[in-house]
Structure prediction request, 184 residues.
Amino acid sequence: MINHIDLSTVLRRTVCDLYSDLVTRPTGAAVRDGIEKQLSELGDRSLTVIDFSHVGLLDYSCADEIVAKLLMRYAEASAPRDAYFLFRGVSDSHLDAIETVLERHNLAIVAQAEDGTVVLVGTVDDPERRAWEAMSRLGRAMAVDLAREADIAPEQVERVIGALCRRRLAMELDGGYVVVGAVT
Prediction:
């Protein structure tokens, strides 16, 4: 199931309908709580588009509360559900804050560019990046295909794919693997 969350709508509903800027840690925490409430109404597995298109400013504390803490919660083994996230409408000014918090927490996201292509943003190691890019080129792929396409040893590819899935950058689908956002 694909879910769409417009952050400016969540902001207006949870904090204040007078502005569209995501600033201050309490604002970020309130917006993240609003997102998590929407996620709790979904099934056991979901892909959620987090849309920044109508957000003006995004400061570091809000990026930390919304992006980093959301990712960390759902990357845990004890996560309440199997949730994946695609970040859309992320402007260059948003990226400054987002990249900073991603690097601080050793996290990465999948962002969708205006032309619909998906890109990795944040911290990933070289084998993870190669496997993710190969998966992006191939579409749904089997581990053996990813090992060959990404030039990763067959005995290492499962570990790399597992890391991408735990980090919410890729998902298992019908016995193969796809990048988050490949099907939106």
Q: What stands out?
A: The beta strands are 2-6, 45-51, 82-88, 108-112, 118-122, 170-173, 176-179. Residues 124-184 form a domain with the Arc Repressor Mutant, subunit A fold (CATH 1.10.10.10). Residues 33 and 157 are 35 Å apart (CA to CA). The mean pLDDT is 92.
